[in-house]
Design a protein that fits this description.
The complex is a heterodimer of chains A (264) and B (229). By secondary structure, chain A is mainly α. Chain A has helices spanning 9-31, 35-55, 59-80, 85-106, 113-118, 126-155, 157-162, 167-205, 212-237, 241-255. Classes of the chains: A mainly alpha (264), B alpha/beta (229).
Chain lengths: 264, 229
Amino acid sequence: MVEPDVWWLLPLTISLLIGAICPATGALLITQRRVLLANLMAHSVLPGLVIALAIGIDPSIGGLISGLLGALVAERLNRRFKGREEGAINTVLAGFTALGVLLVPLLEARVDLETILFGDLLAATTTDLLRTTISASALLAMLVWGYRDLVFVGIDPEGAAIAKRPVLLIRLICSLITALVVISAITAVGVILVIGLLCAPVLMHVERSRSLKELMLRSASTGLLLCGGGMMLAIAIDLPPGPLIGTLCLALLFSYRGNTAEQR
Amino acid sequence: MSHSSCVLSTTELCFSYGGRNTVDRVNLQLQAGTLTALVGPNGAGKSTLLHLIEGRLKPSQGTINTSKPIGLMPQRAAIDWSFPITARDMVQLGTPKKGKATAAHHCEQLLERVGMAAMGSRRLNQLSGGQQQRVLLARGLMQQTDILLLDEPCSAIDPPTREHLLKVMRDQAEAGQTLLVSSHDWGSALDSYDQVVVMDGQILANGSPNTVREKLSDLTCMMGSHCCG
């Protein structure tokens, strides 16, 4: 009897999980106007990943530290360049990416930069699945614990602080979860393309949703279809899944007709 | 209206920003169950004074004395109106910790009072500016604090809506809540208030609308332009 060939099951499972958690996290980031910071964190994980791989520890630990460090550096520079934050954030983004690329030859790390930058779902392992499951659980736990505060901080951060909500803690946890999700998504779409998956499905639904919860669910569903479909299509036509999913994100935005929520 | 007791007072309150006293030696007293207007031009320090009273800012000098909980209705610019949330959920964000059991019922009552009962399920960005201000006022009232500070609640709204919001505020004062309402202009609607405080860094005049008119004779030339701001 011939064993069924199910090699695609692991990458498909990971792509579906990533497809759900990236847009769900993106919904938080877009409604809190922190997308730029998320893109910065996505690029900032690179030096940490390279160092971790060079010294032989779990790359997600290095990436997590490096991503948060990038956010911290940007936060400091933002204060110095008040009103010009975009310039400061983008400079940190470029600087951390450049540092990551430089570290590869400097540390003689055996790193496939292309895989980190654009993902390689077909080479996914059970460790990647575990990492993604941990990220999904952390996101879920945060929503259960602080959904109301997430809404309050998103709509009126000053009012949330006045109402004695833990604004700083919420933002810190949000950054931590963003870093976790980004690191998990590297397998699927890489650090360069993850921002598309964080944003595109959310932009499709942000005007139609009546609550953050609804926006997260709708976006996650779209992301699920996008990643699952992209993965299967990539196998069928023999193209790399990451760039294909990134291109589908763009196609998704082009297909959007700008419907707004009908009034009930 | 009752003038039974002072619920909040400030003594020689100062706040410096950029080497300038934006709030300069402010002495203010608010009586329980009163509606007070805090008026003055742009940059007069009204919002700063509200934030000092609320506790967000620390005074560089002077003291604030109160034992009552304080709520704040922020300026409309502080809110992200494009956030995906319905008017009803927005109001419920004001629910105090102790009021969760009756929050839904209280929320419906407040939506009714501000004239938004039929639009509770609408998203905030589907509402007009005046409707958004009504929702914001309802959220402020949802906090059920003894003192409520309102930062320009009537900015950029039509006269009937202003009148309605002022009536809701007046009803709250009649019910015992103390309201301090900031505005950057003034006019005939000052008569709706029990007390009027005119400030431009320092307090220029303070008292009943008539007293303030007598003290600042040039106030009359600005009458009739706006109500509460």
